[in-house]
Automatic annotation (TrEMBL):
Domain Aminotransferase class I/classII large: 31-357
Lineage, uppermost ranks: Archaea, Methanobacteriati, Methanobacteriota, Stenosarchaea group, Halobacteria
InterPro entries, sorted: Aminotrans_II_pyridoxalP_BS, Aminotransferase_I/II_large, HisP_aminotrans, HistidinolP_aminotransfase, PyrdxlP-dep_Trfase, PyrdxlP-dep_Trfase_major, PyrdxlP-dep_Trfase_small
Organism: Natrinema pallidum
Cited Pfam families: Aminotran_1_2
Top EC category: transferase
Protein name (database record): Histidinol-phosphate aminotransferase
Length: 384
């Protein structure tokens, strides 16, 4: 017996860990810093760490009460009903739930390129097709409805990543609203806000629930996670906020007890730990600004907890930085072979990453690609 044909499925490439790299290079793990996976440099919320320790003795029980309590806490955070909050095993679990709810066999999703590989992977797992719209490097990866609508051909789900990984760009709410207005009634606009805490401006939940000048919509869903700002990537906890009309669907598409007892108790503690989130966001903004000011290559504006850097030869630069103890993300797997992505670290980590990258660029004499031609080719290009 053989598995079904998986030839169209592409394996997800995660950022490399310190232990893995140290083992490969036969070095001490303490020599390395990892800025490749957009993890929280301050670790988990301290309150969540306490909750995990205190919950350890009760993991023999299913997380029914904790699941309900966390759902209520998240709903209160966003001023939506409990039925609109779908807890999941990480953000990728929420992606699966949205696809289970919307996709019939041979339906299609429209995803950004470059972008998060799991949108397409999940669609194929659910026997859906995958089509792409481009975020153009020449346009600094600007996100506007027009680029999506030009590629749109009645797909069942359109994925918008805001802030976008790996570029850090965002799509304004007015553009998301226009996208929803100008697509079919049965097309869901799924907005992935995994990095939303680090961005300026309101969440797209404003569109879904009719905040401010927006009318409430039934064709928008928003994904969020506890992995980034809350520092809980290892316990796998995410959620989707869905239209009120979808209240009955969750029980039909979710796995039993979608989030673990440890994850739910950690999330309950973390959601009230505002001090940790504020500290994390402040560190991110300082790190982003430092990297944009001090890296000797083009760094795109970012609203995430990372920056994308044009280094010319990502594989060579990332490999040499790794040799020197700084692990960053080679973005070749995103279709950006000239770029690396660097997670925002602590002050010391950020300074070390910048110094290492500048030294590597100088030593390798790599020629970064242009981020786009100026309107006036004779004009002096400003130092990025």
């Amino acid at each position: 017996m053989q598995p079904r044909d998986l030839s169209d499925h592409v394996a997800y490439e995660a950022g490399r860990g310190i232990e893995e790299v140290a083992r490969e290079l036969d070095r001490d793990p303490s020599e390395f810093i990892k800025l490749a996976s957009n993890e929280n440099p301050h670790g988990p919320s301290p309150a969540a760490a306490v909750a995990i320790r205190e919950t350890a003795s009760s993991v023999s029980s299913y997380p029914k009460a904790a699941h309900a309590d966390l759902t209520t806490a998240v709903a209160g955070r966003w001023n939506v009903t409990d039925d609109q909050v779908w807890l999941a095993n990480g953000g990728d679990g929420a992606i699966d739930y949205l696809h289970r709810t919307t996709l019939d066999p041979d339906d299609a999703v429209l995803v950004p390129t470059p972008g998060f590989a799991y949108y397409g992977m999940s669609s194929r797992f659910h026997h859906g097709d995958v089509r792409e719209y481009e975020l153009s490097k020449a346009d600094d990866f600007t996100q506007e409805a027009d680029a999506v609508l030009e590629a749109y051909d009645g797909e069942r789900v359109i994925w918008v990543t805001s802030p976008h990984n790996p570029t850090g760009s965002t799509m304004p709410l007015a553009e998301i609203e226009r996208l929803a207005d100008e697509t079919d009634e049965e097309t869901l606009i799924a907005v992935d806000e995994a990095y939303g805490e680090f961005a300026d401006g309101e969440s797209a939940i404003a569109l879904l629930d009719g905040w401010d000048e927006f009318e409430a919509r039934d064709d928008v869903a928003v994904l969020r996670t506890f992995s980034k700002a809350y520092g809980l990537a290892g316990v796998r906890l995410g959620y989707a906020v869905v239209p009120d009309e979808w209240a009955d669907a969750y029980a039909r598409v979710n796995t039993p007890f979608a989030a673990s007892e440890l994850a739910c108790r950690a999330g309950l503690a973390a959601i009230d730990d505002e001090e940790h989130v504020v500290r994390t966001v402040e560190t991110t903004r300082e790190s982003r600004a430092y990297m944009r000011d001090d890296i000797d290559a083009h760094v795109w504006e970012s609203q995430g907890n990372f920056v994308l850097v044009d280094v010319g030869d990502a594989s060579a630069v990332a490999a040499e930085m790794q040799e020197r103890g700084v692990i960053v993300r080679d973005c070749s797997s995103f279709g950006l072979p000239g770029c690396v992505r660097i997670t925002c670290g602590t002050e010391d980590e950020t300074e070390r990453a910048v110094e290492t990258l500048n030294d590597v660029l100088d030593d390798l004499d790599v020629e970064p690609e242009s981020a786009g031609e100026p309107e006036n080719p004779d004009a002096e290009v400003a130092d990025p």
